[in-house]
Amino acid sequence: MNEITNRDKNNFKWVGKNTQRPDGPDKVTGRARYGDDMIVPGMLHGKTLRSPHAHAKIISIDTSEAEALSGVKAVVTYKDIPDHPLLAPPYGPMITDFHDISRNIMARDKVFYDGHPVAAVAATSERIAKAALLLIRVEYEILPHVLDPFEAAGADAPILHDYQYTLGSDPKSSKPSNVFRVASSERGDLSKGFAEAEIIVEREFRSQPVHQGYIEPQALVATAAADGSVDLWTTTQGHFVIRGYCARLLNMDMSSIRVTASEIGGGFGGKNNLYSEPVAIRLSQKTGRPVRFVMTRSEVFRATGPASGTYSHLRIGAKKDGTIVAAEATIYNQAGAFKGSPVGRSVDTFFSAYSIKNAKATAYDVCVNRPKVAAYRAPGAPMAALGAELAINELAAKLAIDPIEIRLKNAVQDHEQSLSGVKFGRIGLNEVLVKAREHPHYSAALAENQGRGFALGYWMHGGGLSSVNANLLDDGTVTIATGNPDIGGSRSSMRVMAAEELGVDISLIKTIIADTASIGYSHLTAGSRTTFATGLAVINSVREIIDKLRQLAATKWDVPVENVAWEAGQAVCHHGDFQALSLKQLASLAPKVGGAIAGHSEINATGAGAAFSAHIVDVEVDKETGFTTPKRYTIIQDAGRAISPDYVEGQMQGAAVQGIGWALNEEYIYDHNGCLQNAGFLDYRMPVASDVPMIDTVIVEVPNPNHPYGVRGVGEPPLVPAPAAVANAVENAIGKRMGVLPLSPPKILQALK
Amino acid sequence: MKKYNITASVNGDELDYSCYADQTLLEVLRENLQMTGTKNGCGSGDCGACTVIVNKRPVNACLILGVELEGAIIETVEGLAEGSTLHPLQQKFLDHAALQCGICTPGFLTMSKALLERNPDPTETEVRYALAGNLCRCTGYDKIVRAVLDAAAEMRANAS
Ligand code: FES
Ligand code: FES
């Protein structure tokens, strides 16, 4: 059962209505073209040779036999990829170190994980390419490896990078370390706070790395032309980022690389990065032919993503009345082979939903012999929320206070500042908590062996660079081009906002994703930023068109433009007797008067809103088998404003099920050599339809004041509390602390012993 | 390596293709016939993105071989609509917003079609179990299950 609350009296024509997605018909008929659906005449097939070792020195690579195989057109190794110097501090929150990236896409002196690329071939068929891989001889010297972030941070751990010294550690590190940096935020007086506490809860938690699990594997076609320019077709969340990275990595001009984003078959943050793109460009340059790369599912698991696995420790102190007076959290985030786990976001997540005077959060960015982590829907947050939310629930239980009451008591308020310095504007946290408390699910009866979990999630959305071109055609229809791959229905929401502004029917508006040569820079479709930031650019562009149309009408009527208003899709003038001019009439007039009418906008959007998502979940645990079944799930979330409610619900529902997988099943299984044993969907088991119930949603709307329609962003907040809510439900079903994910049957049976 | 010449019916058209003995139907469809509507999410029978209907039974196209299909009747997502009229399942998937990225959609549609041919009036649980071999990472299945139940109701109404 899904409902939307708080909709105010605004009389929108399109915003907030469910309209059919424009990309839908192509997707249900099989016409949509994803990464792997591009067929280019004469294209070669690329394949990657990957390390079978978790950690090893490369002694030598001999490609001569492979090159001699009939049908093989080229082989590349690290020698074909330019080297780049190590990035020097200070580092921004997002680390883009081409030294690391060049080594991640193609190992140079060492391999750092099972699946690390070592060489690649291009051949006339996939079968020849595969055969060629078997003919490449690589000599390795195997080194000891480490997989666990907590162990890797220890003094005796094998060191991945002998040039890496810990940044921000106290005392300063004197030897190389797997810990790249320690991020921390602190306020108040922690020892004083804990001294005031009348009750203290202390717990530790572990979570396993989990894969984003997009169903479409990475796929691309690179075509290098004789003049040095490159056309790249790839499945990505940010084709402008791919262009920039490829140019930097290969020392090319950015303008010579044109990237087109294919239809994208899921990403969840996992397609923010590049993998085979530069390698494919090199192979295409060497052979003079287009080169296609498509990862197998096993390659996706071995070498892309995942989200960080973590170890965390928390201490929270409160007064008897439930006021939290002190809180401290430490988390070790596994970065994978190269630095750059989402430590800042972990620090920001722990306590940002609460007003706590004395608090400290610390996160370690730790390299281990696993694939480099990638963003996964609110990167760094669900693992931090796991600890904070379970600890707060335990505090509530010990004080005999309702979990929602304790949160209302400590909830952060409008205009407060978070521990890591985020200044909140108007937020919808109280509204979300009150709606959750009122929801019938929260007080429904539970059957035997069932437990109810509750958790709250916070996420601060992104803004950033977005570009939009809008063209009014002379028949009165409109094309809108954005630079953001559509991963969650943005073509639909852009169309809705444009139609609302123009006051015309949505069927007159066509939205596309332009390639990198055709529009200004647009940052990733990530951070739940697109409807907010790119939406702002759409609104600006369309308003520019409206201004030009008003000017046109003013000229025709010979009145000052200030006297011309835009109402319900037409220019009107209330200062005299003028027949309104419709969009269509003005559009046909434009070419005869001043030329084509277009609007464009290139912005760096600020003012994204924070959002909160509360989850109520019931599970049933089979005490014989330890198997957990989610029985009922409700999400209450502030969307700011739901432009397309169906898609907002879809985001919430999808995230809940990802959270169920994270909490109950999903994990990587490595053998004692550090090789991945479950690189497939059979053994890395994501939830299927029969594992989950319907996911009920309540969309709360507390508009973001910084957006004309109040948009906040919706994709990420609903994953943040999901693993915690499910784990909490299991705890309540079996009456034990369960802080080590996933809560697979063996762990539950063990706990029940 | 030897190639085999096969004739089969694909979405009602008689088609010839020649393939190697180890080529899967998925490869035949996508590469030889350039019918890319059927998707490859794993190539190992674990995701259902490649589901097609062969001789009225849903199968993972990545698990059967092209050479096995002499004379077979194959239905793929490209054959669901009649001209520009969508199949009720396709229409209901749109109406219920039962797709996001859409990569899983062809497989869900073909699997659901096979289900409704066998069982025109399934319960929610029956739909969930029938679709348990199809992975969707975007939707959480809620709207997919609703779309299939709604399409079933409409197809029953149209049939009576
Ligand atoms: S591609 Fe056939 S089941 Fe996944
Ligand atoms: S809609 Fe994306 S996997 Fe199903």
Layout of helices and strands:
The complex is a heterodimer of chains A (753) and B (160).
Chain A: E1 2-4, H1 24-29, E2 44-50, E3 56-62, H2 64-68, E4 72-76, H3 98-105, E5 110-111, E6 117-123, H4 126-133, E7 137-142, H5 149-152, E8 179-187, H6 190-196, E9 199-207, E10 219-224, E11 230-234, H7 239-250, E12 257-261, H8 277-287, E13 291-294, H9 297-303, E14 310-318, E15 324-336, H10 343-351, E16 358-367, H11 381-399, H12 403-410, H13 429-438, H14 440-443, E17 450-460, E18 464-472, E19 478-482, H15 490-502, E20 509-513, H16 530-557, E21 564-567, E22 570-573, E23 581-582, H17 583-593, E24 597-605, E25 610-621, E26 628-638, H18 645-664, E27 695-700, H19 722-734, H20 745-752
Parallel strand pairs in A: 1-27, 2-13, 11-12, 15-16, 19-20, 26-27
Antiparallel strand pairs in A: 2-6, 3-5, 3-7, 4-6, 8-16, 9-14, 10-11, 10-13, 14-15, 17-25, 18-19, 18-24, 21-22, 22-23, 25-26
Helix pairs in contact in A: 10-11, 11-19, 15-16, 18-19
Chain B: E1 3-10, E2 13-20, H1 25-32, E3 51-54, E4 57-60, E5 73-75, H2 88-95, H3 105-118, H4 124-130, H5 142-159
Parallel strand pairs in B: 1-5
Antiparallel strand pairs in B: 1-2, 3-4, 3-5
Bound molecules: FE2/S2 (inorganic) cluster (FES) (2 copies).
Give the low-confidence spans of chain B.
Answer: none
> Helicity level of chain B, as a percent range?
25-40%
How many strands, what sense, and barrel or not for the largest sheet of chain B? 5 strands, mixed
CATH topology of the domain at 35-143 and 217-264 and 271-303 in chain A: Aldehyde Oxidoreductase, domain 3
Question: CATH H-level name of the largest domain in chain B... which superfamily?
Answer: Beta-grasp domain
- From the alpha carbons, calculate the radius of gyration of chain A and give it in angstroms: 27 Å
Identify the strand order in the major beta sheet of chain B: 2-1-5-3-4
Share of residues in strands of chain B: 15-25%
Measured distance between first and last alpha carbons of chain B = 53 Å
Low-pLDDT stretches of chain A:
none
Number of strands of chain B: 5
With strands numbered from the N-terminus, the spatial order across the biggest sheet of chain A is: 4-6-2-13-10-11-12
